[in-house]
Amino acid sequence: LIPGETLTTRSPFDNPYPNLRAAMVNIALGDMKKAEDLLSQAESASQKDGWFNLVRGELYYYRDRNLTAAEADFRKAIDLNKNIIRAYELLALVLIDKGDLDEAEKWAKEGLKVIARGTNQELTMNSSRLWFILSLVYNAQNRWAEALEAANTSISGNPFRCRAYYSKGIALANLKEINKAWGSINIGFNVGQTQELLSSTACKIEGYLTMARLSEMEGKIEEAINYYEKAANISNNVFSNWKYYQELARNRTQELRARSR
Predict the structure, then answer these.
(1) How far apart are CA 261 and CA 252, in angstroms?
(2) Could you identify which of 47, 135, 208, 242 might form a hypothetical disulfide with 52, taking C-beta atoms 3.0 to 4.6 angstroms apart as the criterion?
(3) CA dist list (Å): 254 to 212, 233, 240, 251
(4) Do the Cβ atoms of 144 and 176 come closer than 8 Å?
């Protein structure tokens, strides 16, 4: 799962291999050891059609934050099987984390092209995720109107995607719609609390980080520090990928405190 998804809104996922499906569920639930054990028992055919690489890449990404290894596995999954939409999603997220925004946009759009050739509900859900990822790219490139449109498209496809509301909030804030921005972020935060462990943890951390960003934009430094501290102090002993963002929150807290002295 990626943040904003639940086990009830998405089965794992179009993956035909029982052990790998179970591994994906355990990653979402935070049991990385169980997921690793299941990956070691993966069906041999899965190493020829991309699914093994997808799940191993997820472990590299969420457990280890090993962006290089994760990127290699997601690219390999796509090479082996152009129809694994999740590989496009996660590859684009890794590329965003690496700062390669043009490449992230390219792969998100490639995933949408694959989806355009399908008709089932699962692909509609995938489309929502990819539009959310595009909204992240556009926000990072200061393309606020495009980011807002992409976030709205994502939400219309799945109204339970917490991070799409956060991305929408950032776009609205930069379009000088602060009140609407806070409204979107609060909706996302409330939606996120109904998710499984990976999603609820991510939604809380990302939610507080987004609230901190908006508070800084409004010049409310003490309020921003409070939100950064909340993000940093959320219990998270499992997901290395999100520990990274929590460390960024701690560093930003120290910077703001030093500046306000």
Answers:
(1) 14
(2) 47
(3) 13, 14, 21, 5
(4) no
Are 147 and 135 in contact, with CB atoms under 8 Å apart? yes
Q: Which amino acid is at 123?
A: L
**pLDDT score for 123:** 58
CB under 8 Å to 139, separation ≥6 — which residues?
Answer: 147, 167, 170, 171, 174
Worst-scoring range by mean pLDDT, 107-111, 118-122, 249-253? 118-122
Tracing tokens 């306000």 back to the chain, one arrives at: 260
SS3 label, residue 49: coil
Position 122 scores a pLDDT of 53
Cα torsion for 135, 144, 155, 194, to the nearest 10°?
80
The residue whose two tokens read 């500046």 is 259
pLDDT for 67? 96
| Cα 248 to Cα 77: distance, rounded to the nearest angstrom | 30
Give dist(CA 102, CA 20) in Å, integer. Answer: 31
For residues 47 and 10, the model is more confident at: 47
Cβ atoms of 64 and 244 within 8 Å: the answer is no
Please report where in the chains the tokens 């639940």 appear, as a residue: 6
Q: What is the dihedral of CA 194, 200, 206, 208, to 10 degrees?
A: 70
Asked if 92 and 108 touch (Cβ cutoff 8 Å), the reply is: yes
**Other residues' Cβ atoms within 10 Å of the Cβ of residue 161:** 29
H-only helix segments in 141-196: 144-157, 162-174, 178-192
pLDDT of 2: 43
Between CA 169 and CA 106 the distance in angstroms is 24
> Who wins on pLDDT, 196 or 17?
17
Other C-beta atoms within 10 Å of 117: how many? 9
